[in-house]
């Protein structure tokens, strides 16, 4: 995703299940930064990142190094250290959930899709800035 400074922040899944990694690409110099591990777990699954319009990074990820049972949303101001917010999928109700993808629509709300039930179903979730605020205030 493009940062305010013009560089691109990317996130990588980890097949060794150590965590989510991140790096920066500078299109002006065509240079990559070193790869840094975030504080988020990762069971070797895909993640999706977006910004909240207030300069914070949000990441949809599986909050485990072992399973893909649920998806959660984390938030960061530096793109490396994240705070847990809320579950995006229903814990224990959807089976393995993975491959999230989120976009922000014209109405300002986000739409996220992901596979559920071990790729047997596609789920759709719509959430707003107010939901995110409640989520990170511990009310979600």
- Total strands: the figure is 11
> Architecture, according to CATH?
6 Propeller
C-alpha-based Rg, rounded: 15 Å
Indicate the proportion of strand residues. Answer: 35-45%
The dominant shape is globular
Which segments are poorly predicted (pLDDT under 50) over 5 or more consecutive residues?
A: none
Instruction: Give the class-level CATH name.
Output: Mainly Beta
Largest sheet at a glance? Answer: 4 strands, antiparallel
What distance lies between the first and last C-alpha atoms, to the nearest angstrom?
A: 26 Å
| Average pLDDT taken over every residue | 92
Assembly form of the protein:
single chain
Order of helices and strands: EEEEEEEEEEEH
> How many structurally independent domains?
1
Summed up, the helix count is 1
**Main structural class:** mainly beta
- The CATH topology is given as Neuraminidase
Fraction of helical residues: under 10%
Structure overview:
With 140 residues, the chain is mostly beta strands. It has a single domain (8-136), classed as Neuraminidase (6 Propeller), CATH 2.120.10. Helix content is 6%, strand content 39%. Strand 2 and strand 3 form a beta hairpin. The two termini are 26 Å apart. The mean pLDDT is 92.
Provide tags for this entry.
mainly beta; 6% helix; Neuraminidase; 140 residues; globular; 4-stranded antiparallel beta sheet
């Amino acid at each position: 995703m493009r940062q305010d400074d013009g560089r691109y922040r990317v996130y990588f899944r980890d097949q060794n299940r150590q965590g989510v990694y991140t790096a920066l690409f500078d299109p002006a110099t065509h240079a990559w930064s070193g790869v840094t591990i975030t504080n988020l777990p990762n069971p070797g699954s895909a993640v999706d990142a977006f910004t909240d319009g207030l300069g914070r990074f949000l990441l949809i990820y599986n909050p485990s190094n072992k399973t893909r049972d649920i998806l959660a949303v984390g938030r960061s101001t530096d793109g490396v250290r994240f705070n847990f917010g809320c579950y995006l999928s229903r814990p224990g109700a959807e089976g393995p959930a993975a491959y999230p993808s989120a976009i922000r629509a014209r109405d300002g709300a986000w739409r996220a899709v992901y596979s559920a039930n071990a790729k047997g179903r596609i789920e759709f979730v719509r959430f707003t800035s107010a939901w995110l605020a409640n989520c990170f205030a511990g009310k979600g």
